Write the C-alpha cells for this entry.
Amino acid sequence: VCDPARAADIGALAERSGAIALTLGGNGEGSLMDQASRRSSDFRDVVRGPDDLAAILYTSGTTGRSKGAMLSHENLASNARVLVDQWRFTAADVLIHALPIFHTHGLFVATNVILMAGASMLFETRFDPARIVSLLPRATALMGVPTFYVRLLQQDGLNRQAAKNIRLFVSGSAPLLAETHKAWRERTGHSIIERYGMTETNMNTSNPYDGERRAGTVGFPLPGVALRIADPESGETLAQGEVGMIEVKGPNVFGGYWRMPEKTKAEFRDDSFFITGDLGLIDADGYVHIVGRGKDLIISGGYNIYPKEVESEIDALPGVAESAVVGVAHPDFGEGVTAIVVRTPASTITAAEIVGAIAGRLAKYKHPKQVIFVDELPRNTMGKVQKNLLRETYKDLYAPAKAG
Ligand code: MCA
Ligand code: AMP
C-alpha cells in the first residue's frame, strides 16, 4: 500500500513480484479505500494466536542487507498493554501523531497504544512545528523524537497556555539532551517522559509517570521486561553502576530475523537475552542510562544510518581513495552525518559532486550534511580508522556560532 504519488514506481515493482499495489493518501484517498468500500463488511474472523507473526519490520544492519525483524502478536499486544498502563492512556485521550508510520515509534508505540486504549488521534501527514503548536489545545498527548522538541522550542507560540490541556509528552528513538528536557519544562511546565526501545524489542524502559522523570536517563525497565548490563565480550552480568552492554528479555522481544538464523543466533545469549548493541548503566536509583553504542550507528533526527552503507557509496566514486562516515553533534538532528574523505592523487572531486553522486542511491537523510577532505584518516596500530578521534576533531562542526 503506497502513496498515490508513487503508484507508478511501486506498481511496477509489485508487478515484478506478482503482487498488486494499492494506494492510500494522506487524506484517505486512493484505491485501498475505494476497494474496501465496495466489499461486504461481513466476513469470518481469522483467529490468531499470541505467537503468530504479526509484522516484519526491516532494520538496517552494520554490513550488507537489512534484516527483517519478526514481531508476533504478543510482542505488539504486550507492549501496547504495558504502555497504556504506564502512561495512563484512556478513551478520553487525544494524541497528536506526526511521526512516520514506517517505523516502530509511529507505527506501534503511537498507534497501538491509542487503539488499545480506545483513544483518538490527530493524524498528521508530516511534522510541521507551527501546526503542532496550533493543535496542542485539542490534544492530551504528543509523542516525538528529540528533533520534534528542539523545533517546537523554536516556536514563539509554545508556552504553558498552549500546553495546558496536555498531560503527557513522550520522547524516544534517540537521546533527548538534558538541556532540551529542562528548556521544555521551563517553557511548558511539563517534564518530557523519555523512553527507550528498538525495532527488535518494542519499548524496553520508560521514565515514570508518577515520580521523577530524570533527564538524560531512559527510566526503568517496563513491567515484564528483564534488563541487565553485561560484559560485551563474556556476557557476564556487571555490577550496578558499571557500563556495559544493555541486554533485554521479555514478551516484547522479537522472535528473530526473517530467514536469517545465523544473524538471529549471534544477537541472543544462550539464556535468551537479546544483545541490543547499546551501552549503558543502571544508577543507584535504578534508572537506566544509555551512554553510547557498541554498534557503528548514527541516529539523525530519529532515523538510523549505518556508516558502512554511506562509505561504500562514497568509496566507489572515481577520485575517492577512502572515506569514514561519522555522526557529529548537530543542534537540530542530534547527530549530523559527516563524511571525511581522502581523494586519490590529482583528484579534484568536490563535496557537491560527492553528495550529487549518491543522490538517488541513498535516502536523503543518509546524505552527509558536510564533506571534509583530509590527506589521511587517523588509524590505530591495528590499521582501524579511529572514528572517535574524528568525532572529537569535528565536534563543533555544526555548533551554532556563539554570539558576541
Ligand atoms: C529530513 N532530513 C533529514 C532528516 N529528516 N536529514 C537528516 N536526518 C533526518 N532525520 C533532510 C531532508 O531530506 C531535507 O533535506 C533536510 O534534511 C531538511 O528537511 P526538513 O524539512 O527539516 O525535515 P523534515 O521533513 O521536517 O523531517 C525532520 C523530522 C523527520 C520530522 C524530524 O526526520 C522525522 O520524522 N523523524 C522521525 C523518525 C522516526 O520516526 N524514527 C523512529 C524510528 P534537503 O533540505 O536537502 O531537501 S523507530 C526507533 O527508533 C525505535 C524503535 C524507537 O525507540 O522509537
Ligand atoms: P531502531 O533500530 O530504529 O529500532 O533504533 C533503535 C535504537 O535507537 C536503539 O538501539 C538505541 O540506540 C536508539 N534509541 C531509542 N530510544 C533511545 C533513547 N531514548 N535514547 C537513546 N537512544 C535511543
